[in-house]
Write a structure and sequence with these properties.
By secondary structure, the chain is mostly helical. It has one domain (about 1-219). It has helices spanning about 1-25, 25-50, 55-80, 85-110, 125-145, 150-180, 195-200, 200-219. Helix 2 packs antiparallel against helix 3 (about 55-80), helix 4 runs antiparallel to helix 5 and helix 5 (about 125-145) packs across helix 6. The protein is globular.
C-alpha cells in the first residue's frame, strides 16, 4: 500500500514538472499534448473492444466519435500555442481540474462516510463535496489574482469544472466496470493509464473554457 502511495506521489511530481515545462516550452507543450491524446485513443480502443465485445459497428462508431472529440480537444490546445491569454486560461482550468481530484481524495480519505455511487465504490459524498470546495477555492484564488474577475463567476467556474470532472470520472469508471478493468493502462505508476488521469479533464476543460468565453463575450 505504501509503495503504491509513493508511486502516486513520484508520478504526480513528474507530471507537475512536465506541466511547468509545457507552459514554458512550445515544443514540449505540443509534443506532450499529441502524445497524451494518441495514447488516450489507443487505451480507449482497447477498452471499447471489451465493453462492446463482438459489436464491431458500434465499436467503429464509438471510436470515431471519441477520436473526433479528442481532435477538437487537441485543436483547442494547438490554438492556445500562440495565444498566451488562452494558454493561461487553459492552465488555470487544468489546475482547477487537478484540484477537484485532490479535493476528492483528501476529503474522502479524512471524512469517509456514505458512498457516492455504485459505479465507483471508492468515491464518497464527502469526497465529492471536497472536490467542489477545493476547485472553487482554486478558481477564486487564481482568477481573482491573475485576472481580477468577479468572485461569484470565479466560484461558479470552480463548481462547474468540478462537476464536469466528477461526471467524466464516473463515466469512465462505468466503462471500466463494463470492461472488467481496474485501469485503462499501466503507463503511469500508481495512477494507471493516461485515460485514468485525464478522464475528468476531458470534460472539465472544454466546458470550463466555454463558460469563460461566454463571460468574455457577454461581459
Amino acid at each position: 500500500m505504501q509503495s503504491e502511495i509513493y508511486k502516486r506521489i513520484n508520478t504526480g511530481l513528474i507530471l507537475f514538472l512536465l506541466l511547468i515545462l509545457m507552459f514554458i516550452s512550445k515544443t514540449v507543450y505540443l509534443f506532450v499534448s499529441i502524445c497524451v491524446f494518441t495514447l488516450s485513443f489507443i487505451e480507449f480502443t482497447k477498452m471499447s473492444k471489451l465493453f462492446l465485445k463482438n459489436k464491431y459497428f458500434k465499436q467503429f462508431f464509438v471510436n470515431c466519435a471519441f477520436v473526433l472529440y479528442l481532435f477538437l480537444f487537441l485543436l483547442i490546445f494547438i490554438i492556445a500555442l500562440n495565444d498566451i491569454h488562452l494558454k493561461i486560461v487553459l492552465f488555470i482550468i487544468l489546475l482547477i481540474c487537478i484540484s477537484s481530484d485532490i479535493g476528492g481524495i483528501l476529503f474522502g480519505k479524512v471524512f469517509k462516510g456514505p458512498k457516492l455511487t455504485k459505479i465507483s465504490p471508492k468515491k464518497t459524498i464527502s469526497g465529492s463535496l471536497g472536490s467542489f470546495f477545493l476547485s472553487m477555492l482554486t478558481s477564486s484564488i487564481l482568477l481573482g489574482y491573475i485576472f481580477n474577475t468577479n468572485l461569484i463567476n470565479n466560484i461558479f467556474l470552480g463548481f462547474l469544472v468540478s462537476l464536469c470532472v466528477q461526471l467524466g470520472d464516473l463515466f469512465f469508471s462505468y466503462l471500466k466496470r463494463k470492461s472488467s478493468l481496474k485501469n485503462t493502462g499501466s503507463i503511469l505508476p500508481g495512477h494507471g493509464g493516461i485515460l485514468d488521469r485525464i478522464d475528468g479533464i476531458l470534460l472539465g476543460i472544454p466546458l470550463g473554457l466555454l463558460y469563460v468565453l461566454i463571460l468574455v463575450f457577454t461581459g
